[in-house]
């Protein structure tokens, strides 16, 4: 029985712990919030640990003796946590999403290889599962394509308010996706475009009409690794119509800025105010749906893979489709069925057919069309 520690006992971390237990591993759940850890331990057969991930010595002590670390804490901690895992000889997976942090983690490759360790960021839904599926389609086309397109959204089943959105995960992660440059391939060249641009309408039976627009992090490392083989590659987020342009207006007004400003008698960053407003006013916890559509085209041939996942009564669709791909890969590593070592993103670490087979047991499935 392998020992795994999950850092973060929120909705994604709890789902990850549940699936690792289901897969037969001995799991420790760690979080800075003692009550949250206690609640997780009451619901699941985990070892609870109260842990502040900013305390390097405490992290190294908690990770020691474990075979693998799953980080479900904010992306900003990714580099330090990956470093601690390597030093303690444990494989490391996280949900990534921030290209700058992932770029720093990639610099740890030599240390990870020397330690016979796999460090795999971008292991969630997108970046993560959607990119693995896209890589699979590209492989089917022989490794080259005119276009590879990814469209992914986590939506409330019943949209409420002008944004048509509920807070499905940390608002910090949401604004990160909406604020950073978006990597794409255009005319065979890797480049970036502004977030909250390139709007398009998309129909989805039962859930449409929807809108799609550019957001950061969704292409993971695909833009850098395929710029000589793919003419066009792009990731866009799916939302109910109107959502993206409201946030684009906030972006243009400077509400995403992180630099503190003096306003009246108070100094604060506009983004902090926005994050507080999102946390306080957006609904959360209602049944959700995750929609994924990926397609690749070469000449007259187009291959499409599509997934529709719903809240299962225990875990939200977003928690399922974020946590379970990572825990499936963790299990493959621990069973010795994934030989990846060094620092690579999820789409480079595991084949689509291998990962999707592992998700059958949790009823995450893709439909195919030509």
Detail the poorly predicted runs.
none
Number of strands: 18
| Average residue pLDDT | 96
CATH fold-level topology of the largest domain: Dihydrodipicolinate Reductase, domain 2
> What class do helices, strands and sheet pairing give?
alpha/beta
Annotation field: number of helices: 14
Radius of gyration: 20 Å
CATH class of the largest domain: Alpha Beta
Distance between the termini: 42 Å
Give the proportion of residues in helices: 25-40%
What is the topological layout?
Blueprint: E1 3-7, H1 11-22, E2 26-31, H2 34-43, E3 47-50, H3 56-63, E4 68-71, H4 78-87, E5 91-94, H5 99-106, H6 109-114, E6 118-120, H7 129-140, E7 145-156, H8 171-179, E8 182-186, E9 189-193, E10 200-202, E11 210-214, H9 222-225, E12 230-239, H10 243-252, E13 261-263, E14 266-268, H11 270-281, E15 288-298, E16 301-310, H12 317-334, E17 342-343, H13 346-349, H14 352-358, E18 367-369
Parallel strand pairs: 1-2, 1-4, 2-3, 4-5, 5-6, 6-17, 7-12
Antiparallel strand pairs: 7-15, 8-9, 10-11, 11-12, 13-14, 15-16, 16-18
Structure characterization notes:
By secondary structure, the protein is α/β, with parallel strands linked by helices. It folds into 2 domains: 3-124 and 319-363, 3-Layer(aba) Sandwich (Rossmann fold); 129-316, Dihydrodipicolinate Reductase, domain 2 (2-Layer Sandwich), CATH 3.30.360. It is 35% helix and 26% strand. It contains 14 helices and 18 strands. The protein has helices at residues 11-22, 34-43, 56-63, 78-87, 99-106, 109-114, 129-140, 171-179, 222-225, 243-252, 270-281, 317-334, 346-349, 352-358, and strands at residues 3-7, 26-31, 47-50, 68-71, 91-94, 118-120, 145-156, 182-186, 189-193, 200-202, 210-214, 230-239, 261-263, 266-268, 288-298, 301-310, 342-343, 367-369.
